[in-house]
Amino acid sequence: MVKVADADLVRYNEDIAPTEPSQRNWTLYNYLSLWIGMAHNIPTYLMAGGFIALGLNWWEAILTVLVGNLIVLVPILLNSHAGTQYGIPFPVYARASFGVVGAGVPALLRALVAAGWFGIETAIGGQAIQTFLVMLIPGWGHLSTAFTFVGLNFGGWVSFLLFWFLNIWIIYHGIDAVRRFEAWAGPLVLLLGIGLLLWAYNAAHGFGPMLNEPAKVHGAALWAVEIPALTSVVGFWATLSLNIPDFTRFAKSQRAQAWGQALGLPTTMTVFSAIGVLVTSATIVVFHQAIADPVTLLGHFHNVLLLLISLGAVVVATLSVNVAANVVSPAYDFIQLFPKHLNFSRAGLLTGILGIVMVPWLLISNPHIYIFSWLNVYSGFLGPIAGILIADYWVFRKTTLAVVELYTKGGRYYYANGYNWRAIAALAAGVVVSLIGKVVPALAWLFNYSWFVGFIVAFIVYLGLMQTAESPVLDTP
Questions:
Q1: Which of 263, 316, 336, 428 is in the most buried spot, having the most CB atoms within 10 Å?
Q2: Do residues 395 and 463 lie in contact, with contact meaning Cβ atoms separated by under 8 Å?
Q3: Segment among 250-259, 351-360, 381-390, 425-434 with least mean pLDDT
């Protein structure tokens, strides 16, 4: 707990206070299983399978995933350090650069993206439950079409909300429930993927036909798909690259979190993406069309027992990634905005409500919308935030923070009325440059590299502006 007079505390409650030594019990295995649970998920499969649907061949798609995850691992590990070193979550970590109050800006942006991801995962889990209900309840398929509201029929709404309540139930049991759930739930979807791969091998009569499926795009058309695809892979975990301190604040040591993540992220993402790529390639051979959605593919199976087991794995695995990746972070982020009114459970409920409002079933309805719009647009917002955090912590402050002042009014992190205008200006510059290509065709190449462009611009602008700071904002050991 922060040792300071209550009258001096600002934007503080126990959920975002520095962790005590007794709370730092996450081992290398916990971080490895965390990434297994988060990486082995249906959106990973959808993304990799979507690359096949967009025209890449199997090795181009897998290489894109591997390179993208090695790139995003760098900011993940850099931002992880502060969480373990000082026991602070992302929105408190961001106070050093954005200000005690100003940290609400990156926290809000991160929370909104997380709410969108929460909705996407809930929509996927809902699809699996809907398939369950069609199989188990006679006439459910007909009843499901009773009406359609905002692009989702009655059965879709029932299934979506059932899965939504499962997520909220876990969150209401706290962060320790998340850790325990992740420890065993993650491997289930890998087993599902292996099962689909065995089906693909048998149905396509070996790996040969899958691996011989040629690329559909070449030359300039290849790069028009490849560059946004690489950005989308980086953008896939651009969210966690910011809020990873939310998890590493519970680490036993820097070594535990760093090795757990370095072993967990690139390997599991690449392996599971490879499964998605090969199975999607097999669907071209078997069904003469690319079926990138595994839940849709499962609908083509007729073995009831196999289908029930597979859909059960989808539900549990989707719960695993949704709770860890898409509720923990925005919960802390919303607490940063409203610390007097929200705790972890209430903030998780707010995330769930926003996930419904963002109509996520429409975001995953088309690979072009999912990859080129959703992933790449939000990358243009999160890349600049990552650039500012890393520039501030590693270059400007050289990893030294005065923790108490992150929670107090009038200290070096309070800047002007709680806001560091230099960070806000650097964020604005990064966002504008990274996304301008979305509306100015001549600059479309900037949008294709949105995360990278935003990161570099914000990094440089922030350091340049901070060097001109007149007030003492540097920390002392």
A1: 336
A2: yes
A3: 351-360
Query: Model pTM greater than 0.90?
Result: no
Tracing tokens 């107090």 back to the chain, one arrives at 408
pLDDT of 107 strictly over 80: yes
Mean pLDDT taken over the chain: 84
Tell me the two tokens of residue 184.
């065993």
Residues 6+ positions from 198 with CB-CB distance below 8 Å:
none
Task: Give the chain as a 3 state SS string.
Answer: CCCCCHHHECCCCHHHCCCCHHHCCECHHHHHHHHHHHHCCHHHHHHHHHHHHCCCCHHHHHHHHHHHHHHHHHHHHHHHHHHHHHCCCHHHHCHHHHCCCCCHHHHHHHHHHHHHHHHHHHHHHHHHHHHHHHHHCCCHHHHCCCCEECCEEHHHHHHHHHHHHHHHHHHCCCHHHHHHHHHHHHHHHHHHHHHHHHHHHHHCCCHHHHHCCCCCCCCHHHHHHHHHHHHHHHHHCHHHHHHCHHHHCCECCHHHHHHHHHHHHHHHHHHHHHHHHHHHHHHHHHHCCCCCCHHHHHCCCCCHHHHHHHHHHHHHHHHHHHHHHHCHHHHHHHHHHCCCCCCHHHHHHHHHHHHHHCCHHHHCCCHHHHHHHHHHHHHHHHHHHHHHHHHHHHHHCCCCCCHHHHHECCCCCCCECCECHHHHHHHHHHHHHHHHHHCCHHHHHHHHCHHHHHHHHHHHHHHHHHCCCCCCCCCCC
Q: What is the CA radius of gyration of the chain?
A: 22
End-to-end CA gap in the chain = 20
Decide if 196 contacts 294 (C-beta within 8 A): yes
Distances (CA, A) of 126 to 140, 157, 163, 238, 298: 15, 8, 6, 25, 14
More confident residue, 413 or 317: 413
Q: How far apart (Å, rounded) are the C-alpha atoms in residues 137 and 423? A: 55
Residue 338 CB neighbours (<10 A): 14
Q: What pLDDT does 33 receive?
A: 82
Domains, the chain, ranges and CATH? 23-365 (1.10.4160.10)
